Automatic annotation (TrEMBL):
Keywords: FAD, Flavoprotein. FAD binds at T47, V181. Belongs to the GMC oxidoreductase family. This is Glucose dehydrogenase [FAD, quinone]-like. PANTHER family: CHOLINE DEHYDROGENASE, MITOCHONDRIAL, GLUCOSE-METHANOL-CHOLINE GMC OXIDOREDUCTASE. It comes from the Eukaryota. Residues 30-211 form the Glucose-methanol-choline oxidoreductase N-terminal domain. GO terms for molecular function: flavin adenine dinucleotide binding; oxidoreductase activity, acting on CH-OH group of donors. It comes from Diaphorina citri (Asian citrus psyllid). Residues 321-462 form the Glucose-methanol-choline oxidoreductase C-terminal domain. InterPro entries: FAD/NAD-bd_sf (IPR036188), GMC_OxRdtase (IPR012132), GMC_OxRdtase_N (IPR000172), GMC_OxRtase_C (IPR007867).
Amino acid sequence: NPFVPGLLANIVGSPLDYSYKTEKNEKACLSSGGVCTWPRGRMLSGTGSFSGMLYTRPSPSIFDNWATRLGNKGWSSKEVLEFFKKSENNLNPDLIEKDQHGFAGPLTIQRFSSQPPFADDILKAAEALGYKGNDLSGSKPNGLNYVQGMVDQGIRASTARMYLGKKLNQTNLVVKLNAQVQKINFSGTKATGVTFKDLKTGEIVTVNVTKEDTSYLSSYCHSTNSSTNLFLTLVDFLVRTSCMVADPCYRSECKDNQKLLNATADHDDFIAKLTSIRTSRNTAFIDDLIKKYASIVGNAITGPLPCGRRRVGVRPNNMLPLSKGRLVLRSANPDDHPKLITNYLDNEQDAKVLLQGVRIAQRIMLSESLKKYDVQLVFMTSPSCAGYTKDSDDYWLCIIRQFTLAENHPTGTCKMGPASDPEAVVDDQLLVHGVENVRVADASVFPTQLNCNPISVVIMTAEKCAQMVLDKNKV
């Protein structure tokens, strides 16, 4: 169930996932033969319906660069702020910069409810080292702080649920499930509709546009440079904690989905988001891991959780990698998965940024402020790295290349920019260059990478696109 946050990992590899694989990398994901996994959502809201739900925004300078240096009029930080606010219903007004947020939009944003005392101590340790946190979606998103997420009443606040949920009975809205677009139809250079396949019946259906530009169409664009965030799987620490008690909850009887949010799940590790640290190029999520204590599926979750040592993982993340990849069509058949040539860690600096993240994690977790937890570093092992001294830079660089994973935030395959930019696919109105009536409104249009989780910017882009369509069709 994509609505239950605790079952996030269960979706990966399921029928709700396209389960893409990258082409072989020479310098990354080496423990899996250089092939990395790219989960992609096959459901309403796409991959947004099984994202980590983190809601953060990039540094304002990212948008100012889009507008000024890259020539995208209307995309400065001041101009896009209204569309962030329009989408957002932030439930933590006392914890954020109020003038940077919205409080009446359809999308519920709030802090995750699970905030154990240990996380407060991590924040204090980080502050003592100069990483004092602030609003991670505000005007200066830096430091270590609790993250906010897209959560409403204990379950996932996906765009499908929050935008479409109350609109499904409208007569002017039809939502077609189990349908896959085959092609965009044209008359000359003007898009006239789409042809899709009903995956249940096999029927091929054509839907025509009856009014110019009243709908936008999104598809794979031609090959261009793209990039995605990278992270090292985990830097693990063991900490000593007191006993904890879980709320009793049975799958057939549980009415409070919040209990599922905080429960453990039957996959390798359940990850409950605690804190996030933001620097200009590096971020890290600090995760509390409880190893296979109980299963949500079928079994009761009740009684005390294990006492004693617990594992805390830190995921260093390179938000602005210099290595670039390409997305190309494997064939003319829309059912074939695309070719994902990622080139992860081809630029040596990308691995060094992740190494810097490892060292920041060590300074925080092994600091004087956390000594009462008797924190111990757990070293990852790989036969390929056995020749390096543990904790040396060379050791960590080897581990980084062995256990690299994509953060699954690919962008830039339909770059936004003026016609004079040879790499640009869409203009600043999100219209595809050279054709009429085709707009693209997703992460593929971002002309540069973001130093945050991209879903907030995807939603802002969709809000802005909707306004553009309305403005063009005003009577």
